[in-house]
Amino acid sequence: IMSVNGKKVLHMDRNSYYGGESASITPLEDLYKRFNLPGTPPESMGRGRDWNVDLIPKFLMANGQLVKMLLYTEVTRYLDFKVIEGSFVYKGGKIYKVPSTEAEALASSLMGLFEKRRFRKFLVYVANFDENDPRTFEGVDPKKTTMRDVYKKFDLGQDVIDFTGHALALYRTDDYLDQPCQETINRIKLYSESLARYGKSPYLYPLYGLGELPQGFARLSAIYGGTYMLNKPIEEIVIENGKVVGVKSEGEGARCQQLICDPSYVSDRVTKVGQVIRVICILSHPIKNTNDANSCQIIIPQNQVNRKSDIYVCMISSAHNVAAQGKYIAIASTTVETADPEKEIKPALDLLEPIEQKFVSISDLFAPTDLGTESQIFISRTYDATTHFETTCDDIKDIYKRMMGSEFDFEEMKRKKNDIYGEEEQQ
């Protein structure tokens, strides 16, 4: 984005691969090494290089911010996507498909008949809701009425509230219930519009894994004159009079006016705000009760398992060129709430049995204490437990605003890109 904005960009990475902590690891042998598992993968796992395993599971909302960024920057020309086959929600120990059409809503065993009618009314209301047209409000004030009151207005029961808030609006906790309803209504709209694009689910996933995303952006940056250096250790961030002026690496220096980095490069300028547990599971079978889907998402709403935050499962397979033939990768993740994270994630792992091999990681979540106003060092937040990129995109837009002093504008980016590509065509 900065390259497209005419900035001169040098990108240095201490790793030998793209994507930092959200890389896709290949071959499979490297994943075993990374998690310090003894020995090598068994023959039954097929060829090591057929695997591309994401360290951080996320899907893209078809109508979400990241897809817009990819389309506007034309990074899409380097990527191929597949639609995720279904989204499921956990209730009373079983999983149910999240209804994605009116017909599915009417057939769903998640709700009784009268509940279905009320839910349908609610969805129609959300679809017609336009924050710029008070005639669509029906007595609701988007900036004052809480979401709890909107649910009351439509007389929706607890189960429906659970899956609406957690499987459609994709909130991780129930804090949203007492906040103004505008944000929730917009989130449900985003879900419905994303779903409308492809029909099976609102989520997309790139062939060959999420590691393709940073590579696509790297290629785009190179077109605009950005320089990339992998395997480049950062020895020191050079500060003069409280402001960043460069970095040192292998005895050489590079000067700069602004620096963007993740929390691992500046431990003295971030604070720990929590932890996430993620468990990567290799399976030889699709997940039970998902209609043998090649890919899916399962959301376990927090109060189904007496927690404050939801548990997520993302499942992909050889259909996405990320695993050997006949193999499936399911990744469970949640925000850590107790001293025994593995016990917290057990409800998700129970849905995946039998599990052939698992890789457990517990990561600290960091947020910047230095917003970069003085230092001009701009630090991203650690990836959270959500299974889509919306919160990540909010972070990108926040960093952009702090660096540039103005809001990130998709349309503006489109125009700049046309200027550059237009000139090339005329020569």
UniProtKB/TrEMBL annotation:
Transmembrane segments: none
Pfam families per UniProt: GDI
Signal peptide: none
Main location: cytoplasm
Any one GO CC term of the record: Golgi apparatus
Molecular function via GO: GTPase activator activity; Rab GDP-dissociation inhibitor activity
Membrane-topology descriptor: Peripheral membrane protein
Keywords: Acetylation, Cytoplasm, Golgi apparatus, GTPase activation, Membrane, Phosphoprotein
BP term (GO), one: protein transport
UniProt-annotated location(s): Cytoplasm; Golgi apparatus, trans-Golgi network; Membrane
Stretches assigned to coiled coil: none
InterPro entries referenced in this protein's UniProt entry, alphabetically: FAD/NAD-bd_sf (IPR036188), GDP_dissociation_inhibitor (IPR018203), RabGDI (IPR000806)
Complex and partners: Interacts with RHOH. Interacts with the GDP-bound inactive forms of RAB3A, RAB3B, RAB3C, RAB5A, RAB5B, RAB5C, RAB8A, RAB8B, RAB10, RAB12, RAB35, and RAB43; binds RAB3D to a lesser extent. Interacts with DZIP1; this interaction negatively regulates the interaction of GDI2 with GDP-bound RAB8A.
Protein purpose: GDP-dissociation inhibitor preventing the GDP to GTP exchange of most Rab proteins. By keeping these small GTPases in their inactive GDP-bound form regulates intracellular membrane trafficking. Negatively regulates protein transport to the cilium and ciliogenesis through the inhibition of RAB8A.
Sequence similarity: Belongs to the Rab GDI family.
Listed name of the protein: Rab GDP dissociation inhibitor
Organism for this UniProt entry: Pygoscelis adeliae (Adelie penguin)
